[in-house]
UniProtKB/TrEMBL annotation:
The protein's name: Aspartate carbamoyltransferase
A Pfam family the protein falls into: OTCace_N
UniProt family annotation: Belongs to the aspartate/ornithine carbamoyltransferase superfamily. ATCase family.
Domain Aspartate/ornithine carbamoyltransferase carbamoyl-P binding stretches: 2-143
Gene Ontology biological process terms, A to Z: 'de novo' pyrimidine nucleobase biosynthetic process; 'de novo' UMP biosynthetic process; amino acid metabolic process
Organism: Acetivibrio saccincola
């Protein structure tokens, strides 16, 4: 395929192939001279209609570490603010010679629409509440680095599942690789269709945490709540926030992940964010390696 639109569309073998390539990319990332020729002559553009720190910057750096040119365009400050449509914006970028367009958009399916309208490869950097495949790939990469396999692991995803494209991509990807994924969160933030995905749904955080190998905490997505917060931040934190006492229910060697940005003191206490079982910082580094791998594979057009 020329695009990466979601983990729903990928096989376990394809996911593993991307992650094996990312292992090689991490060696480049960790070397003294972070400059490899894999993307020489290529042009990468990030097109972001929503805020980002990690995803946008890691794509830009990934492109630069592999010798590509990289440019960014945001909805704010571009002709999008003058009413230009998504497709016309993308066609404009395409006509300037972009080989890869990386899109973040509030509308589910926006990257799929773009992929049909431009020659460039399209990578989904988060589409509404649908998928965030590169985040899930870096989460899986981090778990494999620590646990060697996902087969049979209990992965507990805790928090605002309803608004979380990260949860959806992780459920697709991790289930394909053999993990037993469960979710827990407030009933108001649990998508009705979740049971159909085959994951276990718990109403208390304690049930999800018992004997978990991996715990993924999620931020409550205030920006996607249209009519006030349900529950409020304090209630969310009290019932679904993770502190060291609660985490004792998980396995002794359980690892703690979070896609970021973290709201310290809400979904995770500061001591959990900074504890030695938390690999949130490593996730960020692994995100660059995974995105280097994707840019390389898509510009070679042999992900499938
Ligand atoms: N995890 C994630 O997507 O972070 P950003 O919003 O900072 O890109």
């Amino acid at each position: 395929s020329k695009n990466l639109l979601g983990l729903k569309d990928l096989t376990a073998d394809e996911i593993e192939y991307i992650l094996n390539t990312a292992k090689t990319m991490k060696l480049i990332l960790n070397s003294k001279n972070k400059k490899a020729p894999h993307l020489q002559g290529k042009s990468i553009v990030t097109l972001f209609y929503e805020n980002s720190t990690r995803t946008r910057l890691s794509f830009e750096l990934a492109a630069k570490y592999l010798s590509s040119s990289a440019a960014n365009i945001s909805a704010v400050g571009s002709s999008v603010a003058k009413g230009e449509s998504l497709i016309d914006t993308a066609k404009t970028i395409n006509m300037m010679g972009a080989d890869v367009i990386i899109l973040r958009h509030s509308m589910a399916g926006a990257p799929h629409l773009l992929a049909k309208n431009v020659d460039a490869s399209v990578i989904n950097a988060g589409d509404g509440m649908n998928e965030h495949p590169t985040q899930a790939l870096l989460d899986i990469f981090t778990i494999l680095d620590k646990k060697k396999t996902l087969k049979g692991l209990k992965v507990a995803i805790i928090g605002d599942i309803y608004h979380s494209r990260v949860a959806r991509s992780n459920i697709w990807g991790m289930s394909k690789l053999g993990a037993n994924v469960c979710v827990a969160g407030p009933s108001t933030l649990m998508p009705p269709e979740i049971e159909k995905t085959g994951v276990k749904v718990f109403t208390t955080v304690q049930e999800a945490l018992i004997d978990a190998d991996v715990v993924i905490a999620l931020r409550i997505q205030k920006e996607r709540q249209k009519s006030g917060l349900l529950p409020g931040i304090r209630e969310y934190s009290r019932f679904f926030g993770l502190d060291e006492k609660r985490l004792k229910l998980a396995k002794k060697d359980a690892i703690i992940l979070h896609p970021g940005p973290v709201n310290r003191g809400v979904e995770l206490t500061t001591s959990v964010v900074d504890c030695d079982r938390s690999f949130i910082n490593e996730q960020v580094t692994n995100g660059v390696a995974v995105r280097m791998a994707l840019l390389y594979l898509l510009t070679r057009r042999d992900v499938n």
